[in-house]
Amino acid sequence: MSGSRPLPEPTPETQHFWDGTRVGELRLQRCNDCAHVYFPPRPFCPACASRSVSVFAASGRGHLDSYVISHRPHPAFDGHYAIALVVLEEGPRMMSNIVGCEQTPEALVLDMPLEVTFEPQNDSITLPLFRPAAVGNKP
Amino acid sequence: MTRYANQVAIVGAAETTELGVIPHMSQLQLHADAALNALADAALEPSDIDGVATAGESPTVVAHYLGITPNWVDGTAVGGCSFMIHVRHAVAALLTGQCRTVLITHGESGKSGIGRGRGRGSAASLQGQFEAPFGVAGPPTLFTLPVLRYMKRYGLTPEQLAMVAVVQRQWAGLNPRASKREPITVEDVLDSRMIAYPFHLLECCLVTDGGGALILTTADRVDDFPQPPVYVWGTGESVETPMVSQMEDLTSSRAFAVAGPRAMSDAGIRHGDVDHLMIYDAFAHLPIYGLEDLGFCGRGEAGAFIEEGHTAPGGSLPLNTNGGGLSYMHSGMYGMYALQESVRQLRGTAPAQVDGAEVSVCLGVGGMFGASGCIVMGNQPKS
Prior knowledge:
The complex is a heterodimer.
Chain A: H1 15-22, E1 27-31, E2 37-38, E3 53-57, E4 61-70, E5 81-88, E6 93-96, E7 113-120, E8 126-132
Antiparallel strand pairs in A: 1-2, 1-3, 4-5, 4-7, 5-6, 7-8
Chain B: E1 8-15, H1 27-41, E2 51-54, H2 59-66, E3 72-74, H3 82-95, E4 101-109, H4 126-130, H5 147-154, H6 158-172, H7 186-191, E5 194-197, E6 199-200, E7 209-218, E8 230-239, H8 254-267, E9 276-279, H9 286-293, H10 302-307, H11 324-327, H12 335-347, E10 359-366, E11 371-378
Parallel strand pairs in B: 2-3, 2-4, 9-10
Antiparallel strand pairs in B: 1-7, 1-8, 4-7, 5-6, 8-11, 10-11
């Protein structure tokens, strides 16, 4: 893949997430009052509105929840590529891509275990992508 | 039933003179062409309008262009169901005396792109940060994302998904203004070009130009207008998320499930009272989700319901009788065309007229399952 993806522009509320991916951590937030774990980032709990929340490093493990395989041309991708929804072991769902795997319906099986991998785009932005989990590394 | 089920009526309704590919008209002129047609339909002048609602353009732009001095405006813009939500807001405005005659306009140069802003979303927005980097390429790669989960959970087959497009083409074949009219089969759908697996070209909406407009007023005035009135019986609206990846449940739209039942309960109707149904079909799975979220089918049952022909011409629940976004037209924000078809059916003037249609439910979607508006209409005041 080339570097021509549209890249995120972090805001004060999301900076910790993008700082995390740069150092190899997938950072989520947990409410200190109700223990709800959530994504995308915000400085309050979307379940109970508490402003007392903590950032923590997630396991990076998850499973494939749903996807499409785009046949549309995209400057950052060669050929057909999957846009995936990954449910993390901690609960939240996020969009990503699946690497290290054929981009076919046969290879991309719903509920397959995945693990995060980090792909630097430039000095400030590293994207969290996912790959099939190594055998024995299943949650 | 609520207070308003017999108090507000649609007294003017029209689409643009042309639909399809209209490269000789700007987006703003599409708004105006539809508005002028609706005004003629209601035998009104722009100076008779004192409320303006629109999406895609600012109500300031539309009101000024048409020479209207409103004392009520609504620029709610949450995608293709904005026009359903405008109807809902107009009911409240009319019943509280904020204005007397509301014009709702839509115009979109979706195909030709004439006079249409093409702003990209901000890279600092949540979508810009957490969806755009992963190769999303417009609605065909976003709206479609939940369906594999639905298929696994409920056993919906590719053939059943394709059948949605086949049935809607049957309706379009009865409609001279539909963009695509030649009959298609399940095999045709499954053989059409893959756009974003598991969606083929014929399971994705058209991209066309067009517009539409509605005029609403209080029911005490309906005898002043030449067309048979269409009464607004019930309304609902909701939003869920700007990010399809953050839907609570990939197999159901929370916005549908809030807006739809609210509209039906406000109208005081049961499912068996519904003669005609419109469900915004940007992609083939939308009618499946809509039938279930509205409660016409149990969870996981809508695919078979459509496959068995219940929503097809001659079926018990005529659905998307203009051919829908898949075969009639889809400019980008299709909700206005769904409303227009409900009005035509209740006036008895639809090209594929449902015999004896008295109650129509019209469910819209905005964004990628991001928002919804639902309107229940009747051709008589609700008793």
